[in-house]
Amino acid sequence: IAAGLLVRFSGRNMVEKILPPSITGPIAMIIGLTLAGNALSDAIPKVTEVTASSTWWTIIALVTLFSTILYSKYLKGFLGQLPLLLGALTGCAVAGLVYGIGGVNLFREMPAAALTSSLWKLADGSIFAVPALSLPKVSWAAVIGIMPIAIATIPESTAHIYQLDIYVNDLAKKKGKKKYNLVDMLDRNLIGDGLCDMVSGFVGGPAGTNYGENISTMAITKVFSVPVLVAASIIAVVVSFFTPLISVIYGIPLAVIGGLEIYLFGAIAAQGIAIMIDHKVDMFSAKNIA
User: Fold this and answer.
1) What is the end-to-end Cα distance of the chain in Å, rounded?
2) Taking the complete model, does pTM exceed 0.85, yes or no?
3) Which helix (H) or strand (E) holds 2?
4) CA-to-CA distance for 123 and 284, rounded, in angstroms?
5) Phi/psi at 221 (nearest 5 deg)?
């Protein structure tokens, strides 16, 4: 929040001097490439020897990845906005066939602890359960440990805004619409991040930034609508109260999630390159190379 207020009073030019595209671009790339390790660990099972299960795991991850890429490139209109969903469904369908024909089950079961730790439920095995919420506890050691991370999220959020600005304005230009100066709203973004972290932390939730995965989803689907994002968030909250829906989502094979993650996290890294191309960063400069 303090960083957001500083940006508001110092202006965008000051931010671009401290965090130029030669910094924000590589930050986006680092985020994507760092997360790539997580994507691969989900897409490729950690086993000491090759088994039917591990082989199918990798195949389904590849099927999910390549089908999603093909959907995003070749589908048009409404279906062209659903490549990630269709890719996940394709991966799940193949996993279902593998289970039905070969008996290899890659689907997951929701841990019992997820339901037993619920704040309130109608009964054991109930279709309705309030998610586990926890109030914060005072710990100065935790504050000292976590506080420096807030500094790291400032250039991360700045990079994310640059990413959004590039992709939104590219689409607006193609549709002959006005330019959206999202970068000028960086102060609101940082203040919003801080406020949302406070709310999330107060009920025991995770910290949040803009999340590069969400920006990748928007860049791939070309859906940047605020009402759509609000609706998605409401659906996510509703889902969290109904155990059958949670079970369905949790049941998605990790191989499918890994396949999607490779695309999404790779897209984050690609967006870092796009930032530098868009701002004509001189990559022959020794300083920028460094």
Assistant:
1) 31
2) no
3) helix 2-10
4) 65
5) -90, -15
